Amino acid sequence: MTKTNLITGFLGSGKTTTIRHLLANKPQHERWAVLVNEFGEIGIDGALLADSGAVLKEIPGGCMCCVNGLPMQVGLNMLLQQAKPNRLLIEPTGLGHPKQILALLTQETYAGWIDLQATVCLLDARQLSQSRYQQNENFRDQLAAADIIIANKMDTWQPQDTQALEEWQAQYGDQRPVYRIEQGRMDIALLEQPRINHAVLPDAQHHHPHAQTQGLAALRLPENARWRRALNHGQGYTSCGWIFDGETRFDTVGMMEWIRLAPVERAKAVVRIPEGRLLINRQGQDLSIETQAIAPLDSRIELIHHGEADWNALQSSLLNIRLS
Ligand SMILES: Nc1nc2c(ncn2[C@@H]2O[C@H](COP(=O)(O)OP(=O)(O)OP(=O)(O)O)[C@@H](O)[C@H]2O)c(=O)[nH]1
Ligand SMILES: [Mg+2]
């Protein structure tokens, strides 16, 4: 049986950062796998987790109603049967609703395969006092479905955020533990906690058409194409992602500035630069940048915003920071 944890949390709360931390601290003799589903069509979290020593399966372009279908099950079955991992960590999209995925994991089919342990929900306490998050059904349901709450990004909180967290815990905590951490550094032993919370969640709203979803096809470039873009929308959010061929290189400083200044809520990129690879991850003002000497096979960029953004204008400036 594969011990399995769902790692939930709203967009940019620190799920991938936490999974990277957990993988870096896993028992050496154990094989771990990660199943990651992103809202954006161009998968980037996979690249962020690539060197972490885990067996990785990415399912891009979705929200729960879609991933609960075939791609999710195929990905899950492949991981369980081929990799036979000791532990599986599942990162659903930050805009996902946990009900469907918990229903899938507790299906009879998986009874002999999956030992479902604690569901861990990442929370950025700053979001508790913003009505846009408070009123978001996914944000609330992710917290309601959790066994363990990990309040991340402590370094960024003001006294009113700590107070909002304490108030939230008193009102909705339901005796569940809330741990305060930074940079996803949660105690790995918490994963062993049992799943005890069987909160009855409402069904997710299913009215979010995927007009331009390209699914797995977005991961590949058509023959002879230098780049393509893919859009997704749902739950009041839109995403625009670009994938560029392995020959395309970007100006390093230009790319960092483009990501920093893009007028969107969430931005991620793994791109080829003259020095090798540039990884940029931005949620609001939280920004992390890494460079690595090994060049990536292609370049991927993903932006996510609540409501519409001027993707064409962003695309024009992006195309201008390519090096010839
Ligand atoms: N200041 C600060 N930034 C953090 C912390 N933890 C994560 N971040 C940053 O927050 C951003 C989002 O982190 P991710 O781990 O990618 O978040 P995620 O929940 O996986 O995001 P999605 O998969 O897009 O929903 C990144 O820029 C991280 O570097 C923290 O403790 N403090
Ligand atoms: Mg992530």
UniProtKB/TrEMBL annotation:
- Which species does this protein come from? Chania multitudinisentens RB-25
| One Gene Ontology cellular component annotation held by this UniProt entry | cytoplasm
Q: What is this protein called?
A: CobW/HypB/UreG nucleotide-binding domain-containing protein
Q: Which SUPFAM superfamilies match?
A: P-loop containing nucleoside triphosphate hydrolases
| Residue ranges of domain CobW/HypB/UreG nucleotide-binding in the record | 5-178
